[in-house]
Design a protein that fits this description.
The chain is an all-alpha fold and 117 residues long. It has six helices and no strands. The two termini are 51 Å apart.
């Protein structure tokens, strides 16, 4: 006997569109079931700092994707990898402003991500 057979009679006699006494009592107290969507959403303003995305996140994703598709990437020396990443970064950010520190951090992150498959 499956679940459908076991509850067949209850499903036939119960009107699923009518609110039960429990639901009516909770509604009067302004309490809703968690599984039901809320009619009003109250958002409290907090002074938590926003988490910023890295400045070059899309470029980072793009270059990591290219590196992972290069089967001989690991055969290059670290200096050569660094040089290639630097050239790619410079070519993609010609019209964007960045500091030397941002560039160095970007290259360091890419080297770490590319060698930790």
């Amino acid at each position: 006997m499956g679940l459908a057979e076991r509850f067949k009679e209850e499903l036939k006699t119960k009107n699923i569109f009518e609110k039960s006494n429990i639901e009516k009592n909770l509604e009067e107290q302004h309490i809703q079931f968690i599984s039901k969507p809320a009619n009003e959403v109250i958002i409290e303003q907090t002074s938590q700092p926003k988490i910023e995305k890295p400045k070059f996140e899309n470029l980072e994703t793009e270059i990591i994707s290219k590196i992972r598709k290069t089967p001989y990437w690991e055969e290059f020396s670290v200096d050569r990898q660094k040089n290639m990443i630097e050239k790619y970064f410079e070519s993609k950010t010609k019209n964007k402003e960045y500091t030397q520190n941002e560039k160095t951090e970007f290259i360091k992150n890419i080297l770490i991500l590319s060698n930790n498959k």
